[in-house]
Write a structure and sequence with these properties.
Length: about 180
């Protein structure tokens, strides 16, 4: 919980700095995250305490230069590295993306179901319902979930609509046991 609060504070400060300098840190951090996810070696370098701070810093600065990251983003990542808080980077990245999405007027969400591909009509119906409910554009992605036998679970930030068979059975069980 403490890490989530700290990450949110860092993300808000970074977004504020980026607005003052007209820099898109969300794009910068996305590029860096994609580079980290594409290379196990880079991930190991950054998040495992086998390498010295100088080794990490040298490699990371070279990668950030090649990615064309802004000075604000590069300085922030170096700050995390120097303060031994680089482990917070994934949480900070997530918060930056959420804040950036809010500023652009949309929310991201996930639809989970048992099928390989969702029922397009259902997803569109849910999207329309959520847009009316929250008053923002909604972008939904689909994920197959092996734990769902039938139905869908939709999550948009802290809002969750659970129309899965498992949820309905649990509600029925609670009703019977508490009657």
């Amino acid at each position: 919980m403490k890490e989530a609060i700290i990450s949110k504070a860092y993300a808000q400060a970074l977004i504020q700095l980026s607005e003052e300098t007209n820099t898109n840190v969300a794009t910068d951090l996305t590029k860096l995250t994609e580079a980290i996810n594409a290379s196990n070696s880079l991930e190991n370098l950054l998040f495992i305490d086998v390498f010295t701070l100088e080794e990490k810093s040298t490699v990371l600065n070279e990668i950030m230069k090649k990615l064309g990251l802004s000075a604000i983003s590069s300085n922030f990542i170096n700050f995390l590295l120097q303060e031994k808080r680089i482990q917070l980077f994934p949480l900070i990245f997530k918060e930056v993306i959420v804040i950036d999405d809010h500023k652009r007027g949309f929310l991201r969400g996930t639809v989970e179901g048992a099928e390989d591909a969702p029922n397009a009509a259902f997803v569109e119906k849910i999207k329309t319902y959520l847009q009316q409910k929250v008053g923002k554009d909604i972008q939904l992605s689909y994920t197959k979930n092996q734990e769902i036998a039938a139905g869908y679970r939709v999550t948009v930030e802290d809002l969750q609509l659970d129309a899965t068979l498992e949820n309905q059975l649990n509600q029925f069980k609670d009703t019977v046991l508490n009657a």
